[in-house]
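Repro case for the chain-ordering regression, as requested:
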Amino acid sequence: MTPEQMVQRSIALRPDLAAVAAAVPPGARVLDIGCGDGALLAWLRDTKSVEGRGIELEPGKVAAAVSRGLAVVQGDAATDLPDYPDAAFDVAILSNTLQAMAQPAAVLLELVRVARRAVISFPNFGHWRVRASLAFGGRMPVTQSLPVSWHETSNIHFCTVDDFRALAADLGLKVESQAFLSGGVRRGALLANLMAEQAVFVLAR
Amino acid sequence: MASSAPDIAPDDSRFGLDRLVRLPGAFALQSGQGLNGLDIAYETYGVLNADASNAILVCHALTGDQHVASVHPRTGKPGWWARLVGPGKPVDPQRHFIICTNVLGGCGGSSGPGSIDPATGARFAMAFPVITIRDMVNAQGKLLDHLGVGQLLAVVGGSMGGMQALDWAVAYPARVRNVVAIATAARHSAQNIAFHEVGRQAIMADPMWQGGAYLADQPPVAGLAVARMAAHITYLSEAGLTEKFGRRLQDREALGFGFDADFQVESYLRHQGLSFVERFDANSYLYITRALDYFDLAEPHDGHLSRAFAGVQSRFCVVSFNSDWLYPTAEARRVVKALNIAGAAVSFVELDSPFGHDAFLLDAPEMNRVVDGFLKSGA
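-- result from build under test --
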C-alpha cells in the first residue's frame, strides 16, 4: 500500500457512502453511477480491492476521478446504461441519485440488468422533518439531506421508503437488505418511513 | 516485462534527439506490397529504466513530426506537444523514456514518397506503396524492437496520433499497458474523407505537382497551401474563428473591392498555407491523408467496433473536446461504448474548449490533469 492509499484509507467515508460501501463484497466488480469525484470507488478499491468503474455527468468531477486512477466515463446513466452488457458487474451503485433520474423505474431495471445486485441510496421524503416542513411550514423542505431549495434542486422524483419498497415490488425486484440513517448514524428498520433521513437498499432481480 | 535488462551506455547512439535508423530487411505492408528496408526518424527523451518499464510512445498527427518536445530544426519552433511532454509535465523525461517517431509515409526522415527507391535509385514519388495506420504502428513496433523496448507503459496520441494509439492496443495487446487517445476517432467519416479529398485534389490540380514527380526545389506549393487552408478550417471552430477574426479587415479601413485578403481570416489562412509548404511535402500529404481515410478499426469485424477491441489488455483514457467537429465527442463515445462492451477499463471525459480540434495542442490544463492522473495510476 502506498502512503497515499494509507491516508485515503484512514479518511472516513461520509456516513451514507459508508452504508453503501458496507453492502459491497470484497473483490467485486462495481459500477458506480453518478460516482462524483470517485471518493467511494477509490475507497472501495483501496480497502475492498474491488474492480471499479464509474459514470459521472460533470466533466470536472470525471477529471478528478480519473486523476485518482479510476476508470470513469463521462455520461448520463439514462442514456449510457443500455450500452453495458448484461451482468457485466457484481454490484451497481446508485448513490443519492435516483431522485434526480427522469425515469427511476427504468433505471432500477437497468441496474439489475448490468449487475447482479443494485445498491441504491436515497433521501427519504417521508422523514418526519420533511413532513413537518410541509405540514406546518407549508414550504418545500430544506434539510441536511435535501439542502437545495425546490427551484434549484436537480431532484425531480422524490420518494419515501415505503414508495421505494412499493416500486421494487411492482418491478418484481427482491429486497436483499436495507439500512437506514438518521443524523449520520445507522438506525433500525422500525418506523424507517418516518424516522430515517436516508435509506440504502440492496436489490436483486 | 522486458525479457532482458538493456544496459544503456550514455553514448548509445540509438538514443537522443534527431535519430535516424535504417532497419534492413523486408517490411510487409497491409496493401500486400512491401518495402525493402525501413528508415525511421525519431527522437527519444529520458532514460529507459533497468527493466524497460517506463517507455512511452508519443504518436503525432497528420502534419506532426518526431520533434515532440524539442526545437524543430527547420522552423525553430518549440516541440509540437511541449505542453504535455517535458520536465514536470504528464509525460516527463525525468521519469519516462519517451519515444516519438516520424510516421511511415512522412517527410521528416522516415520512409515515404520522398525516399529513394532502392530498385531505381530515384525518389519513390507516387511509386511509394499506399500505407495505413497499421503500417505506421508496425513500423513503430520495429523501432521499439531496435531500442529494446518490449512493452510500453503507454501510447499517447492526439488526432491521427490517437488512432495509432488505439490501433496499438488492437495490433499488439500485450505490448501496451495504457492508451491515451485524445481528440480522435476509430474511423474516418464520410465528412473526414471529403475534406481530405479536397486537399488531395488541390495538390494534384497544381501543374507543379507533375504526377508527383516534382523536383525537390519546385514543389506544388500552391496546391499544398490550399490543401492546408481547407484542412486548417476543420481544426478550428466557428466560435473560435469568430472570436479571433470576426469580420475584421486586414490592414485596411474599408473593403477593397478586389480579391486581396480583405479579411483577417483570409490573411490568416493564407499565412497558414504558405508557412506549411516550407515544412511539409505534398506527396507525403497525399499518402498520410490516404492512410487516415482508410482507417476503420471496425472494418475487419463487420462494423462491430467492440469486436475489434475484444482482445485488448490495456487501460484506456479517451478525451474529446466539445468544440471539435473534426473528431467529435460522438465518435469518442462510440469508442468508449465499444471498449465498455469489450470489458476494457476505460475512462472518458469531454473537455470544454472553444478552440475546436486544435484544442489538444493548445494550453489545456484539464487535459494535462487527466492524462497525468491516468498515467500515474497506471504505472
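Ordering looks correct now. Residues 321 and 351 of chain B are 5 Å apart (CA to CA).
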